[in-house]
Design brief:
Keywords: DNA-binding, Nucleus. Its main location: nucleus. The protein is of the alpha+beta class. Helix content is about 40%, strand content about 10%. Helix 7 packs across helix 8 and helix 8 packs antiparallel against helix 9. The radius of gyration is 22 Å and the shape is elongated. The chain binds a DNA duplex (16 and 16 nucleotides) through helix 17.
Length: about 375
DNA sequence: AAACCATTTCCTGCTT
DNA sequence: GAAGCAGGAAATGGTT
């Protein structure tokens, strides 16, 4: 694309947003998406760690993508660029400058052609998840989401055979409307269900969207959104108190099922990219909560930042959030803490004796120390 | 396909 | 008694 600015230009030009001395960026004539007059912000690690000048409610993660401004979109793309360690210098500024409705209408292949395969797929998948999440209260947005989904993945409409029962595809967190897919059909379900998970591709994705205070904890009688082998398994595994003494619950991680992974985009993405995205380990998830307190304050806090000592303030809420990330609504602090204890041996965590809910990062953990990149 | 890794689940016993 | 800690054992899903 001739004459376009790349992201390094943004990083340079965006300094005007900080020192106010540079001219606003202008798009080339014929640009498909008009540039916003809003100041553009740098898409760098430093930005994401330090620039919180904008009101929190104006962040991309605080509103539906349909309402994003150009700056929101740049922040969003920058977040994925940073999180995936993608080389932002290869991107066109023109590709990044559009409004929310324009972005939401872009088909998958268009995003892929604009941003390249890995990043484009990533952006598209996350956008689907965001549309699913924010479809609440606006049926057109939900329809938009399904139109996109069915357009991109028509095989969903041809699911047949397999286990009986409905697999949750998505849910409307405000209205309680849940959409299930069963053997080629889509069934709306009126009952309230646990909040659907989002397509976490980084810990920030989840945390941006969730605060402990707004978490919905699954009721014992509600259907579970986590994939199980079958309806029978769902009963046996998720409602053990109904079958206690009759069926022994299987140990280990519950099985996933096709189409049960939130929007399905992560499942489909994983086929193409076998490498787990950054930030998918528990200790990284914990670390990110601690280093982004402005996004999820009140869940955890540093006891001694220099030494890496931290404390769970809302242990169950953190566990639920971790469960969302792993698409496992049965996660709790007991299980999370068991995983944390495994880190002692690997020296990712050090023991802190005698203090409840207090842990300490070990020598094999990174990214939390003062002075490290982005911290 | 198999080995490996990082959890997840369940459990018993202990401590606060 | 509840909550948390410790760690063994077995299981799963994803990656190599």
């Amino acid at each position: 694309m001739s004459g376009s600015c790349n992201l390094s230009s943004i990083l340079t030009s965006a300094n005007w947003a900080m020192n106010g001395s540079l001219e606003p960026l202008q798009a080339e004539s014929g640009t498909a998406f008009p540039l916003s007059s809003e100041p553009l912000l740098p898409l760098s690690n430093a930005y994401f760690s330090t620039a919180y000048s904008a009101q929190e409610t104006d962040k991309w993660y605080c509103k539906p993508p349909q309402q994003w401004s150009t700056r929101n979109i740049l922040e969003w793309i920058g977040h994925h660029v940073e999180d995936s360690q993608f080389d932002g210098n290869t991107l066109d500024l023109v590709s990044c400058t559009m409004d929310g409705p324009t972005l939401c209408q872009l088909p998958r292949d268009k995003l892929v052609s604009m941003f390249g395969g890995p990043l484009g797929e990533r952006l598209f998948g996350h956008l689907l998840d965001l549309k699913a999440k924010y479809g609440a209260g606006d049926l057109s947005l939900t329809c938009d989401f399904f139109n996109s989904l069915f357009e991109e993945y028509p095989e969903i409409m041809n699911v047949s055979g397999g286990d009986a029962g409905y697999d949750i595809l998505t849910s409307d967190i405000n209205s309680g409307l849940s959409i299930y897919i069963n053997q080629g059909g889509v069934k709306p379900e009126g009952d309230m269900t646990p909040m659907s998970d989002y397509g976490y591709e980084s810990s920030q994705d989840s945390l941006d969207r969730s605060c402990a205070e707004t978490l919905r904890f699954p009721s014992p009688s509600s259907p579970d959104s986590v994939g199980t082998d079958s309806e029978q398994d769902l009963t046996e595994e998720r409602l053990p108190h109904f079958t206690k003494g009759e069926v022994k619950r299987r140990r280990g991680r519950p099985k996933k099922n096709f189409l049960t992974a939130g929007s399905g985009s992560e499942h489909l993405r994983s086929k193409k990219n076998k490498h787990a995205p950054r930030g998918t380990h528990l200790w990284e998830f914990i670390r990110d909560i601690l280093i982004h307190p402005e996004q999820h304050g009140g869940l955890m806090r540093w006891e001694d930042r220099r030494e890496g000592v931290f404390k769970f303030l809302k242990s169950e809420a953190v566990a639920q959030l971790w469960g969302q990330k792993k698409r496992n609504s049965s996660m709790n602090y007991e299980k999370l803490s068991r995983a944390m204890r495994y880190y002692y041996k690997r020296e990712i965590l050090d023991r802190v004796d005698g203090r409840r809910l207090v842990y300490k990062f070990g020598k094999n953990s990174t990214g939390w120390r003062l002075g490290e990149v982005g911290v």
